[in-house]
Amino acid sequence: MSDNVNNPLRVFWSSAVLAKRALFAWLNPAMWIMQLFGMSLFQIAFFVYVAKFVNNSEVTVEFVAIGNALQSIAYVSVFAVCNITGEEKNQGTIENLLVSPANRFSVFVGRAVFQIVNGLATVTIAFLYAALIFNVDFSQANYLGLALVILVTTFAMTGFGLMLSSLGLFLRTSMIVANIFLFIGLLLCGVNFPVSYLPGYLQPLSYAIPMTYGTEAARMAVEGASLGDISGLLGLEALVGFAVMIVGYMMFRWFEHLARSKGTLDRF
């Protein structure tokens, strides 16, 4: 038993399996499928019709549809992953988890694994909507490059969600943080308009979020850019994603210490 707890890979895999089982223990699979197929469709449709109304030469239907197709992953990687610590706290299991000798990093990254798979499925369906319903031209697309963009963005944004999840140890809930950053992503990450439209003081903040690199790389891949053309953006996105995951782990340990000293684990 002790060997299993002290084995990071074993803890990682156990957390991943339990997270999947826990999700479907309370969520009806039919409801999950409805969310999987419905959320991205309505998000893309809303912003596509706004773009048509605005009728801007740069903010085309294709620009907006591709951006929102990729950004649909944020509902999973930011919203669901960010709430991991909040769920543990609400269910009264966070205290037992924190006193166990299990590696914290393995536990919480493992809990996010199913959401990575969920995110990949969500984005794939969203791009199908972009092609079949919103008439985005994929005839010149580099599908291998686009698949790589989706994969890197999924992992990078999951790391971003884990960083935000650490706040749930100290705050009453992490859901507020998730909501804020969900819509910040729509504003700052070049999803619905170019980053150059933002005020100069906001643009550096935009490039601190992995999604910004992903949306630009996805549009290039759809236009037929080679892997070499998008490799720079993907490298930066992976680097930022890795950085936020490390920062998130450091934040988690700090907030764990702070929550213990302030007693906020039991207060809320």
SSE layout:
Layout: H1 2-6, H2 8-26, H3 29-54, H4 61-71, H5 74-82, H6 84-90, H7 94-99, H8 104-132, H9 143-165, H10 175-188, H11 203-206, H12 210-222, H13 227-262, H14 264-267
Helix pairs in contact: 2-8, 3-4, 3-8, 4-8, 4-12, 5-8, 5-9, 5-10, 8-9, 9-12, 9-13, 12-13
What distinguishing features does this structure have?
mainly alpha; 268 residues; elongated
Can you walk through the features of this model?
The protein is mainly alpha-helical and 268 residues long. It has one domain (2-267). The chain is built from 14 helices and no strands. The protein is elongated. The model has no long low-confidence stretch (mean pLDDT 81). 77% of the residues lie in helices and 0% in strands.
The coarse overall form would be elongated
Number of domains: 1
> Helix-strand pattern, N to C?
HHHHHHHHHHHHHH
Calculate Rg over CA atoms: 19 Å
The fraction of residues assigned to DSSP E strands is: under 5%
- Give the termini separation: 31 Å
**Low-confidence runs of at least 5 consecutive residues:** none
At a glance:
This protein has 268 residues and is mainly α. 77% of the residues lie in helices and 0% in strands. The chain has helices at 2-6, 8-26, 29-54, 61-71, 74-82, 84-90, 94-99, 104-132, 143-165, 175-188, 203-206, 210-222, 227-262, 264-267.
